[in-house]
Design brief:
Length: about 325
């Protein structure tokens, strides 16, 4: 049993982690809520039905904390946050933003055991990154196929507005209402333009690529393009893979089925982001062979960016860390 803390519990990821921890009361004796912004200090919240107050991120309020979930905003300085968390023995940074350089990116079920085996458990502090949900989705999708001679993967990932936290959700909602009422008066602060009824490129491809490469290793030829979609929740991924030429679609599907994180919906005709909302698994359509390309297949998958793509991965890392002797 441990004392935990959540930095920025008002964020979508922070709140999702808090709710997931409330369902796992065997993991903790106390959960402390902390904030960076002075306007959030003293706000009344609750944990497992008990009233609690959001405290300032300070040395005193970090005293006795065994593990902290840091959920920074895109505008926060990650290096400053890590410096202020230097007294915490274990920190998991759960954020879709580009992580601070030099910290291990960890995806449970893919490279978690490898990272822990290589880690100096006597080192303080331990700081790990739970990355962009697009990297988590691709790693879960591709890892089970390694034994089938997976050589190459080219992915288009469509991220939802909620990757930009509540501000992204609110701006997309405002824009959609305005567009449908033939008004051009709406905010563009988050997306830089009209996202409603639209699809836009992002500058996040490099950070997703870096995280996925760290998890999957350098042997796999990997290309990723991240797009911003006009959906509120859930990651979508269209992936072309190249395996051993003798590989069949059924072998691909069986390999995906073997993963504890994937559900292959063999009856799905129109599997979309809305189907993944609230689910704790990555949902995949059956692999489709590319005509004239032996070993070439198309994969389509969707995943809730806040469950498996954020809180699920962060909690799995936390469980492993708390079980590791210090």
């Amino acid at each position: 049993m441990s004392r935990l803390a959540i930095l920025n519990p008002k964020s979508l990821i922070g709140n999702e982690i808090k709710e997931a921890l409330e369902r796992r009361s065997e993991l903790w004796t106390d959960i402390r809520l902390l904030a960076l912004e002075t306007g959030d200090y003293g706000l009344l919240s609750e944990v497992a039905g008990e009233a609690t107050v959001v405290h300032e991120l300070s040395r005193d309020n970090l005293e006795g904390i065994d593990l902290l979930f840091a959920c920074p905003q895109a505008t926060d300085d990650p290096d400053e946050i890590l410096n202020r968390l230097s007294g915490v023995p274990r920190t998991i940074i759960a954020s879709p933003a580009a992580p601070p350089p030099g910290l291990p990116t960890v995806i449970a079920g893919v490279n978690l055991d490898e990272v822990l085996d290589a880690m100096d458990t006597g080192r303080r502090p331990i700081q790990l990154v739970s990355p962009h949900p697009g990297a988590i989705a691709l790693a879960h999708l591709l890892q089970p196929l390694r034994h089938l001679g997976l050589k190459e993967a080219v992915a288009s990932v469509v991220q939802p507005a909620s990757v930009h936290d509540q501000a992204g959700v609110d701006e997309l909602l405002e824009q959609t209402r305005s567009v449908l009422t033939f008004s051009n008066e709406f905010s563009r602060a988050v997306f830089g333009g009209q996202l409603a009824l639209n699809l836009m490129p992002t500058d996040g491809s490099a950070s997703v690529m870096t995280a996925a490469r760290q998890a999957l290793g350098p042997e796999l030829a990997l290309a990723i393009h991240v797009l911003q979609g006009a959906v509120f929740h859930s990651i979508s991924a269209s992936v072309f893979i190249r395996c051993d030429p003798k590989t069949s679609a059924e072998e691909i599907n069986q390999a995906l089925d073997s993963s504890t994180h994937i559900e292959v919906d063999r009856d799905a005709e129109q599997l979309g982001p809305i189907d993944a909302s609230g689910k704790v698994s990555l949902l995949a359509s059956p692999a489709r062979a590319q005509s004239g390309e032996p070993g070439g297949f198309w994969l389509w998958a969707v995943m809730d960016n806040l469950t498996l793509g954020a809180s699920g991965n962060a909690l799995a890392i936390a469980e492993a860390l708390l079980a590791t002797p210090q």
